[in-house]
């Protein structure tokens, strides 16, 4: 969702600030950037045709205004093969460069759950041509997300079930302890490539079982001890 801002200083009306709600609060978390780590669960890497033991972490981005929190996902145009990918969200309360792993969790404000919705057919075409993935990953409404929960309330989860059901049937299941690159390692690596900022969101990767959805489908997911998400495909 977007929070309004004063537009009197601009030559055109600026977009609102992209935000995420906070569980139990009327205050909002402002989003700076969204970083997504690819193939961070071994079984998912294998199902996508890759060897999880031979790859360093890699990241792509979604746009802050790709986030939606209203419980619906509009099926996008220009695609007939849209996939779900359930992931834990990690949100930063402070940034920095070259953050060491043993200090990384000090930068985490809280956690949530999100869906990295993917136009798989368009992503596949881009891969074949050696082109960027934005057309398949960073489209409108491609990041349905839950409200956030502060780390001050739940700590820093490093294990717990990650799951997604479609129309009541379990499609994805894994555990946070199966992540190849743990949260501190992701932050350390990312902060060597970018200057991280307060408001950054990291989508931490998805377990195996990704697959297509159709209009009318009902997706329910969760990260144990963190949050749940309920989304209707429209």
UniProtKB/TrEMBL annotation:
Keywords: Hydrolase, Metal-binding
Record InterPro entries: Fumarylacetoacetase-like_C (IPR011234), Fumarylacetoacetase_C_sf (IPR036663)
Keyword Hydrolase: yes
Coiled-coil region list: none
Xref: Pfam families: FAA_hydrolase
PANTHER family for the chain: ACYLPYRUVASE, FLUTATHIONE S-TRANSFERASE
Name listed for the protein in its UniProt record: Fumarylacetoacetate (FAA) hydrolase
